[in-house]
Each structure stands twice: as C-alpha cells, then as structure tokens.
Amino acid sequence: MVERLSDEARSRALKELPGWSPVAGREAITRTFTFRDFNEAFGFMTRVALVAEKSDHHPEWRNVYRTVEVVLATHDAGGVTERDIRLAEAMNTIAGQRGGI
Amino acid sequence: MVERLSDEARSRALKELPGWSPVAGREAITRTFTFRDFNEAFGFMTRVALVAEKSDHHPEWRNVYRTVEVVLATHDAGGVTERDIRLAEAMNTIAGQRGGI
C-alpha cells in the first residue's frame, strides 16, 4: 500500500506542481484546467483517462465546457500519496502539450 | 434560439426520461449514471462527448471512478430546452447499450 504523505511532504510536493493547491477541509489536492474549447478539454480528459486506467489510479473531476476541475486523493490511504503527485504531474505535462504540427 | 420549456412541459418531458429529475433551486435536470468500472464510465463519457460536440450542446458532468453525475441546462435560454431533453435521451440510450458481441 502507498503511504499517505505528511503535511510537510505534501506542501513540498505542491511547490513543484504549478497550478495545484490543497483542498480546504480535506486531505486532497486540486487544480482547475482551462482550455480553448470542449474539444481540447475532452481531449485532455481522454489522454489522462488512459494514464489513470493504466496506473489504476483515477481522478475525481468535473467538466463544464472548456474547464476541467480535478481533485486528487488516495482513498485507501486517507490522504495524498505519491500516486496523486505522479498523476498531477502527468496532467500538467499533458495540459502543457498542444497537439498537431 | 431554442426556447426554454415551461415548468409543465419540463415535468412532462421528465416523465419520459427514466432516471432524470429536476435540480433543486435551479432550472436544470440531473441524473447519476453508475457503471461497472472506470473503463465503462469513461467509455460512456466518450460516446456522449461526440454526440455533445456534434450538436454543440454540452453537459456539466462529474466523474468519480465508476459514476458519472450529469446536469443539463441551456445557459442561453436560462433553463431546460428541447436540446437538453434530446441530450438526456441520447445519454440514456448510450448507457443502456453494453458493447461487445
């Protein structure tokens, strides 16, 4: 089982994760991504879904047109773990890439 | 522009939409779909996304593992319109289909 990060380790990890912040009142991290349109937002979600499924670690997320609001936590561990940090990093990488040539 | 349905027309439409109900305090309709796993939930979302994009009418939705919570309203019309009813019907149809042979 993956271990829950201490408050200090979580804060340290968040410093390396642009755009992410703690969730008030809950041991979780959140970021809202904004894209150009629904095509781009859902394209992002699709790429993230493949990563999530492969690593068997899934986000809580809400999509309204061109925005995707994400919350990450590891339920089994009762807090934020390295698995959340890795998924958050993957999301930042995917969101930072614009497709096409 | 598509016209907002009256309260009566909305109630009548909801009777034909298994699983859907009004949102409290807001002119919108909602349904939570539950699937076997994330694969099936996100497969549903992907099929719905194509329908939504084609008709240029998009849901507000939240996915947590195998559940998808949907809210539909037509922002321009300030309420529920025929476009929401059609999208809700399409979602019910897609959710009712299980892939494979």
Automatic annotation (TrEMBL), chains A, B:
Keyword DNA-binding found: no
MF terms in GO: 4-alpha-hydroxytetrahydrobiopterin dehydratase activity
One GO biological process term: tetrahydrobiopterin biosynthetic process
Catalytic reaction(s) noted: (4aS,6R)-4a-hydroxy-L-erythro-5,6,7,8-tetrahydrobiopterin = (6R)-L-erythro-6,7-dihydrobiopterin + H2O
UniProt keyword annotation of DNA damage present: no
One Pfam family in the UniProt entry: Pterin_4a
Protein keywords: Lyase
Gene3D superfamilies: Transcriptional coactivator/pterin dehydratase
Enzyme Commission code: 4.2.1.96
InterPro entries: PCD_sf, Pterin_deHydtase
Superkingdom of the source species: Bacteria
PANTHER family: PTERIN-4-ALPHA-CARBINOLAMINE DEHYDRATASE (PTHR12599:SF0)
Family: Belongs to the pterin-4-alpha-carbinolamine dehydratase family.
Protein name: Putative pterin-4-alpha-carbinolamine dehydratase
Classification lineage: Bacteria, Pseudomonadati, Pseudomonadota, Alphaproteobacteria, Hyphomicrobiales
